[in-house]
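An example makes the point: we let one protein speak, the chain in one-letter code, the fold tokenised, and here it is:
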Amino acid sequence: MQNPPKSNVPMQPAVRRRMSRHGSVLIETAPRQIPWDLIDRLLMPIIACHAAAIIISSLLSFLGICQLSAFALFFFFSILTVSAAIGFHSLKVSPLGKSVLITGCESMVARALAKRLDDLGFTVFAGFRNLDDNLDAGTLKALSSGRLKPIQLDVTSEVQMLEASLYITEHLPEGADGLWAVVHCDMWCALGELEWIPFPVMRKSFDINVLGVSRLTQIMLPLIRRAGGRVVFLSSAIAHIPSPVRGVQCATQAAIEGLATCLRHELKQRTVTVSIICASEFASGNAWLDDKTMLDQAKAMWELLSDEQKSEYGEDYFEQAIRSLEKYTNTDGDFHSTVRALTDSIIRSFPLFRYTPLSRYEKLQTIIAEHLPRPVYEMFYQN
């Protein structure tokens, strides 16, 4: 049989993957976002180079030793610093004998991460809330190597978390001291203004997004300490950006960021690294709700409101508030930068504490929300 003729079109690198919210098929697309993590790593060294250049130039001039411009010194220091920082940033760990637990593999981000780490050579434990007859779990297993092991893991169940810990301990790679990383991707959204959300729905959101994450970290920390590994949290930009109709989700994300910040200091002496991935609003949790799911949730919430609440808000206002979320259902999620940041937090020898895989627009909005007065933010971003 003859080989098919080779195309004259040059092969393009697989630089980005897009996942449709209607399935888990990965579609290659062109890059759209800036690797903010590398910029964040270089920012402070560059500022320090500028300050050092001014001080040294002034000192040399004052002592009459020589006349060197601050710009020349800054340029020289910057080249050395940027080269060292990029080299430092590029160091990676060997995946051989290392295992990673990923929760919430119902989400496309988590499954893409699991497949990526498996391709790199890690042993991956992919946690699913419901593993029985799960088509996504079966597809992921079929597309991966024998190192990937789907496991039953509902982070609201103490029993399942303990069982997962025992299973992981028994199936660690040969020679492994412990678990290299746990990646918290399990997330659940509660949509609606605070008065509309039933309390059981609100409690489920905190049980999965905050309490489940905290308890699973407690259970897995002995295994992670033995390996000198990592704890990785997937958060969202809405932890920093006011987002009406998603107030409960904002609260859970802010709680995760606070937990991660404190845990980082607590585990510094234990050689355990903590990273948080502050992802795009389109890339974390159930942000890919389709129209039917969102409208079904809205209908159920409306039916549970009292007559007084229905009269106060009105059906038109209620529908308008829910419809304001349609932009998160009508846009296919672009998850490449989030998967890359999650991967970097696991494979880099010296990972950053915070990764921000955001678009330029989202990054600017986050900076304005965090660092400028609230009236300035509201001037640009009317909710």
Remarks:
- Residues 1-33, 283-288 have pLDDT under 50 and may be disordered.
- The two ends are 63 Å apart (CA to CA).
